[in-house]
Design goal:
The protein is an alpha/beta fold and about 425 residues long. The chain has two domains: about 5-30 and about 275-425, Aspartate Aminotransferase, domain 1 (Alpha-Beta Complex); about 35-270, Aspartate Aminotransferase, domain 2 (3-Layer(aba) Sandwich), CATH 3.40.640.10. The chain is built from 15 helices and 15 strands. The strands form four sheets. It has an eight-stranded mixed sheet, with helices on both faces. Strands 11-15-14 form a three-stranded antiparallel sheet. It has a two-stranded parallel sheet with strand order 1-13. Strand 4 and strand 5 form a beta hairpin. Helix 3 (about 40-50) packs antiparallel against helix 11, helix 4 runs parallel beside helix 11 (about 260-270) and helix 5 packs across helix 10 (about 240-250). It binds pyridoxal-5'-phosphate (PLP).
Length: about 425
């Protein structure tokens, strides 16, 4: 299979473990093992203490599948297949699709939600979310109706949506299901950010509970703050599809990690407490971000998210977002993901709302702006070799040149103190 590089994940691979501030992370502040075990009941602790590091059941630990099924109205443990979330996307797309199929995908999108389909020889129609001012984002349901084809096999939705934080109404979701059901089209529903609704009354049911041909993807990476466990799942009442997915998994991981499955059982039993903790972080960051971006409405357009741990504001046209992100990384050690990594051309960037250090990261952005980072509306500090963000974002140019006559060591100490890294960290010795 020939598949294009996953731009967002390549960008994270390059920067995630090197930068000081991840202002665009999509997950919530990760729990430590200790914190998770402190939430375990006696049965969970006994499972953990008696853990055997053997192969596990390929469909997933029965207790884990039982906890997952408990979150649904209609799904039983036999309707669940455990896999890492990204793996589950790969498995489901390869199972459901064949060359020549047509697929509609909410857009912008987490790349694998359309790239695997394209690599499998399908035609993909991007179903656009559009900015809607103070209302956030809008999804035109008529677009879906108008773009169905006789060969449409799958509709891919992602609510709460990454990167916009959009959440449709219950009525809109029902209409999507109605449209799909009318033609027997499958719905792949990426629900990785479900449970993180700011208003719990707006939480949507899982699509696999609404529709027999609905396949839900969920997992522990976002709402549960446990991305390192690599535990997710597919849930569907379509037993034939589930069995085919299970058979495909024999070619990916065969079975999931034994420690992760047990920790997953513990996490799901403590769901309410974990989700409440994460929502508290998000709510506080959301207010901080709203305040911050409201300070300069000529530069930033804040488009309020309705759920989840990400937002997708717009930067004024005069400031190309790729250069802004590159500059901010070089000057302030803050990583921000530009919108083109989601295939979006609208000069947006993603803000992650789940990390505790968001206020400090925003202070760094402020410092960047205060130090003339956007003089004359252009990013200043890093030489632009190319306009393409795919470019190696490795900074090879100095963030700025120091003309001070003071000894460089003093300047370096200040750089270390204020930016959190020495000048050499930019790979420059000038
Ligand atoms: C919408 C969406 N789906 C799936 C995934 C994959 O989750 P994981 O990275 O835990 O495999 C992500 C991760 O960012 C995501 O944002």
């Amino acid at each position: 299979m020939q598949i294009k590089p996953f731009e967002l994940e390549r960008y994270f691979a390059e920067h995630e473990f090197r930068v000081r501030f991840l202002l665009s992370a999509s997950d919530c502040e990760s729990l430590t093992l200790q914190e998770l075990l402190a939430l375990a009941d006696a049965d969970g602790l006994a499972l953990w203490d008696g853990l055997s590091l053997a192969y596990t059941e390929s469909q997933g630990h029965p207790l884990l599948r039982r906890e997952i099924a408990r979150q649904h109205q209609t799904v039983t443990p036999d309707d669940v297949l455990v896999a890492a979330p990204e793996e589950a996307i790969f498995i489901a797309m390869n199972t459901l699709l064949a060359p020549g199929d047509h697929v509609l995908v909410t857009f912008p999108a987490y790349q694998s939600l359309y790239q695997v389909a394209e690599a499998a020889g399908c035609t993909v129609t991007r179903w656009p979310l559009t900015p809607d001012g103070a209302a956030g984002w809008r999804l035109d349901i008529d677009f879906l109706r108008d773009h169905l084809r006789p060969e449409t096999r799958l509709i891919v939705v992602n609510f709460p949506h990454n990167p916009t934080g959009h959440l449709p109404t219950r009525g809109e979701l029902d209409t999507i299901v109605e449209i799909a059901a009318g033609r027997g089209i499958y719905i792949f529903s990426d629900e990785m950010y479900r449970l993180l609704e700011y208003d719990p009354a707006r939480r949507l049911p899982s699509v696999c509970d609404l529709y027999e041909r609905g396949i839900a993807l969920a997992g522990l990476s976002k709402a549960y703050a446990l991305p390192g466990l690599r535990i997710g799942w597919l849930a569907t009442r379509d037993r034939e599809v589930l069995n085919r997915c299970a058979a495909f998994k024999d070619y990916t991981t065969i079975c999931s990690s034994a420690p992760s499955e047990v920790l997953g059982v513990i996490a799901l039993r403590a769901a309410a407490r974990i989700v409440e903790r994460n929502l508290a972080i998000i709510r506080s960051n959301l207010s901080a971000a709203e305040r911050f971006f409201a300070q300069d409405t000529a530069l930033f357009t804040w488009l309020p998210p309705r759920a989840g741990s990400v937002a997708f504001p717009r930067l004024a046209e005069r400031v190309p977002v790729a250069g802004f992100c590159r500059d901010l990384l070089a000057a302030q050690n803050v990583m921000v993901v530009p919108g083109d990594l989601f295939g979006h051309a609208g000069n947006h960037f993603r803000v992650g709302l789940g990390r505790r250090n968001l206020p400090e990261a925003l202070e760094r952005v402020q410092r960047y702006l205060d130090h003339g980072g956007l003089r004359q509306g252009r990013t200043q500090n890093v030489k632009r070799k190319t306009q393409n963000v795919k470019r190696k974002t490795q900074v090879t140019q100095p963030a700025w040149r120091c003309h001070s006559r003071k000894p460089l060591a003093g300047i370096q100490r200040r750089c270390q103190r204020e930016l959190g890294c020495p000048i050499e960290a930019f790979g420059h010795d000038g």
